[in-house]
Amino acid sequence: MHELAFGYGEIKTFLPSFLKLFHCLKEHRMLDEKYISKFVRYANYDLTDLANRVQCLSNEITNLEGQKRNSMNKVILWNAQLSDLGKAIDIRNQQLRRKGK
After folding, report:
1. Residues in CB range of 39: below 8 A, 6 or more apart
2. Burial environment of residue 85 by CB neighbours within 10 A (0 to 12, 13 to 18, 19 or more)
3. What is the DSSP code string of 16-72?
4. Which of 24, 18, 88 is nearest to 7 (CA)?
5. Which residues, 6+ apart, have CB-to-CB distance to 42 below 8 Å?
6. Using one digit for the tens of pLDDT, what is the confidence trace for 41-69?
7. How many whole angstroms separate alpha carbon 92 and alpha carbon 86?
8. How far is it between the farthest Cα atoms of the chain?
9. Mean pLDDT over all residues of the chain?
10. What span, in angstroms and rounded, lies between the C-alpha atoms of 87 and 79?
11. Contact status, residue 39 vs residue 26, Cβ threshold 8 Å
């Protein structure tokens, strides 16, 4: 009880945020020692750096999605061109067969 009272004295101004964190960890079944120590280790790492890293990765995902769309459009265009060439070859073969008769 003494530790709880001391802890409350330390976090009382942050209690709503602390409870949100607690409920989030509980909801995701992350209240055991393994997860909490991992969480503290990440929290000790500069959160600004982590936020920047997340933003960079999000930007990279957006760029890669754009590249993927461009590549898909090229493939569609090339398929259409290939189809047109196949039709042209068929027409030319028919013409050659008629001339050969």
Report:
1. 25, 30
2. exposed
3. HHHHHHHHHHHHTT--SHHHHHHHHHHHHS-HHHHHHHHHHHHHHHHHHHHHHHHHH
4. 18
5. 50
6. 777 777 778 888 999 999 999 999 999 99
7. 10
8. 106
9. 89
10. 12
11. no
Report the amino acid identity of residue 26: K
Q: Return the structure tokens found at 74.
A: 């090229």
In whole angstroms, what is the distance from residue 26 CA to residue 18 CA? 12
Indicate if the alpha-carbon torsion angle 54, 59, 63, 68 is positive or negative.
positive
Q: What one-letter code names the amino acid at 91?
A: I
Residue type, 59: N
For the record, the structure tokens of 101 come out as: 């008769």
Residue 101 confidence (pLDDT): 64
The position carrying tokens 């500069």 is: 46
